[in-house]
Amino acid sequence: MEKSAFEQMDGTYHREGDYLLPNLTVPESPPVGIWGQRRKRYLKTQREPLYNALLLSGKLDDHLVEVDTQADAMFFQLVIQLAAQNGVSEQLKVENQMEWVKQMNVIRGQAVEIVYSELIYS
Length: 122
Hints:
By secondary structure, the chain is mainly alpha-helical. It has one domain (33-120). It is built from 6 helices and 2 strands; from the N terminus they run αββααααα. It has a two-stranded antiparallel sheet with strand order 1-2. Helix 2 packs across helix 3 and helix 4 (60-85) runs antiparallel to helix 6. The N and C termini lie far apart (61 Å).
């Protein structure tokens, strides 16, 4: 006995009117943080061939998660190191909170620029 066209198709389908439509699901992608999103935007706008190659090979999400993880760790490590180098301590925070905030904002800005140049824009 010969199978009908419906029985020969792989997967599951649902009927909408006169049509059989496949039940498609989008694979879950891992959550990407702010650094990964910035890397994605950079690749999409400045390195389009690399972006397309990663996207078409299915490696884009893994790449973005890896960059996000590395950038996050690098950022926090840099903030700690730069604060120590510049003498920004908990003691300063207690004695002069506004000066501590000012210096920490400068340090965070420096750390962001280093992460951009070393990971996001490379």
